[in-house]
């Protein structure tokens, strides 16, 4: 370990994970490159699009602008930590049911941002959903089906 490297420890998708990272390593690079979690998408790289959203604790975070060392000790969840093909998370189910995705590039971030919303507010209004997801850009869907999918979860 050099002066610019740090041992970090986190719970990543439910698994205790220890790693040595450079002080300047971004969380997105740690997750995608060191942990092979390619569901974390990179687009704007400047905290505008939300494609790189992960959960740190119950909060949605842009992993493109967070250092990996700042996630030391945290509980981090990426889309790979939700359901799998045979056992989808309810948010994933709702996105499928409502056709709330096309190319899918924004979808991991959109789903994790939705999880965070429902943690903090299980019955958000349409306006609250629109406000909460305003930091997640989708180039395909026009948002309508995404909002409807999240509304269906709010009602249940
Ligand atoms: S890639 Fe992080 S917000 Fe766009
Ligand atoms: S589904 Fe393509 S960017 Fe949202």
General description of the model:
With 156 residues, this protein is α+β, with helices and mostly antiparallel strands. It folds into 2 domains: 5-81, Roll (Ubiquitin-like (UB roll)), CATH 3.10.20; 90-155, [2Fe-2S]-binding domain (DNA polymerase, domain 1, Orthogonal Bundle), CATH 1.10.150. The chain has 5 helices and 5 strands, in the order ββαβββαααα. A 5-stranded mixed beta sheet has the order 2-1-5-3-4, with helices on one face. Strand 3 (53-56) and strand 4 (59-62) form a beta hairpin. Helix 2 (90-98) crosses helix 5. It is elongated and about 50 Å long. The protein starts with a strand and ends with a helix. The model has no long low-confidence stretch (mean pLDDT 96). The structure holds FE2/S2 (inorganic) cluster (2 copies). One FE2/S2 (inorganic) cluster (FES) is lined by residues 42-45, 47-52, 62, 64.
Which small compounds were modeled alongside the protein? FE2/S2 (inorganic) cluster
Number of strands: 5
> Count of helical segments?
5
Percent of residues in helices:
25-40%
- Multimeric state of these chains? single chain
Query: Looking across the biggest beta sheet, what order are the strands in?
Result: 2-1-5-3-4
- Could you give the distance between the termini? 50 Å
Write down the CATH topology of the largest domain. Answer: Ubiquitin-like (UB roll)
Q: What is the domain total for the residues?
A: 2
